[in-house]
């Protein structure tokens, strides 16, 4: 009698050692010296390179965003317009271009970018939002934020946070007020 179920419970081994090493050597083929030929050295360097590649994927995205923003800002300065004004005007004109597209237009199609800047400025002028502050905010944006702050202050959530600060949870109070709320005084 043959028990086949026991054989199914045995752990199968991984790939053959030859193919496992072959995979590492293929990834290390462009290295110089023993880093390419000795397995123990090659495997360490390949693993380190894979870790760097994993970290670099996120860093590359951040670097590209920063590069695109720099290019767009430089092109905006040539046309006497801020980056915020450009984005706000294009959004209001329903021209949906991302950073990469705007950066490419600024680099390779300067006349097209100039027209886009003119369209954005014209749209903000038509909406009476041409007064843009140096920090990039405009009157409209400030009014909307103030209105949102007022609405939040009137809401029940704001009242709950005020109750929290004024005594329902004395442990959240800073310094002396916490001691006073707990019944401790400075002289005691």
TrEMBL record:
Ribosomal protein among keywords: yes
Gene3D superfamilies per UniProt: 6.10.160.10, Ribosomal protein L20
Domain of life: Eukaryota
A Pfam family annotated for this UniProt entry: Ribosomal_L20
UniProt-listed SUPFAM superfamilies: Ribosomal protein L20 (SSF74731)
Keywords tagged on the record: Ribonucleoprotein, Ribosomal protein
Any single GO BP term: translation
GO cellular component, one term: ribonucleoprotein complex
Transmembrane domains' residue ranges: none
GO MF, any single term: rRNA binding
NCBIfam families for the chain: rplT_bact
Family: Belongs to the bacterial ribosomal protein bL20 family.
Protein known as: Large ribosomal subunit protein bL20m
Organism: Eumeta variegata (Bagworm moth)
Lineage: Eukaryota, Metazoa, Ecdysozoa, Arthropoda, Hexapoda
Gene that encodes it: mrpl20
């Amino acid at each position: 009698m043959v028990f086949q179920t026991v054989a199914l419970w045995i752990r199968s081994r991984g790939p053959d050692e030859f193919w496992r090493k072959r995979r590492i050597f293929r990834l290390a083929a462009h290295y110089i010296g023993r880093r390419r030929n000795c397995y123990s050295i090659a495997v360490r360097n390949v693993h380190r390179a894979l870790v760097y590649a994993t970290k670099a994927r996120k860093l590359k995205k951040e670097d590209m965003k920063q590069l695109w923003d720099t290019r767009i800002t430089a092109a905006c300065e040539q046309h006497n317009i801020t980056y915020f004004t450009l984005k706000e005007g294009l959004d209001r004109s329903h021209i949906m271009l991302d950073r990469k597209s705007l950066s490419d237009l600024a680099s390779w199609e300067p006349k097209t970018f100039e027209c886009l800047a003119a369209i954005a400025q014209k749209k903000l002028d038509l909406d009476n939002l041409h007064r843009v502050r140096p920090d990039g905010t405009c009157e409209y944006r400030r009014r909307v934020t103030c209105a949102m702050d007022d609405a939040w202050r009137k809401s029940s959530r704001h009242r709950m946070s005020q109750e929290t600060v004024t005594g329902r949870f004395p442990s959240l109070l800073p310094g002396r007020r916490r001691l006073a709320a707990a019944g401790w005084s400075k002289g005691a």
